[in-house]
Amino acid sequence: MNNRPLMGIDSFIDRLRSFEAGIITRDSVLDFCSSVQITDSSLSPYTHFDDKFYTRNLIFRDDIFEVMTICWQPGQKTAVHTHNGQLCWMIPQSGNLGVVDYKWMGCDHPENQNVVGIDCLAGSEHTKVEVVREVEACAGGPVLTADKLQTIHRLYNLSEKSERAVSIHIYSRPIDSCVAFDMEKRLCYRRQLAYFSKYGEIAPKDEPAGLRVIQ
Ligand SMILES: [Fe+2]
Hints:
mainly beta; Jelly Rolls; 7-stranded mixed beta sheet; 3-stranded antiparallel beta sheet; 39% strand; binds fe (ii) ion
């Protein structure tokens, strides 16, 4: 456990929104996220688990910030993915996650990155990405980021059998789709993202799938 002052998620979001008046940098939001401990009780409306896939649970969204919990059953993991050129902060709330960072080493359609508003059209069938590092993200430990220099990673619940995990994710700007990588076939494609719940309410089942693992 750390010595950070406790804060409910509503107050946390109020403080986060104060950054909207100025230039938002990775480090300024990182300092804020690292200075407080969000209470578990304030997150209970946004804590939902599913046996098949990890869940994305929207807490707040405007033009600048998107805040959600991601809830992980043992062994659940994401595909290797990008962040649409946006910034992401991840606060490990409970349990232990693994993070594998990757570096893009080339593909047969690099020109597809020349697009406005998203990071890449994707669609390469010969993508090369290499592991840069693997780290653990433990509750109460450091806040992790994905940024414009390190934008490709995979997240997973380190516990294979027993322990659930909850993490809080902040994106600026919000991300509706990203590039995902099929590591076996070495191809990449754009994937639409969806929520398991929004503002505490379970989202309709017919919404498109989230960023689900594909291997
Ligand atoms: Fe991510």
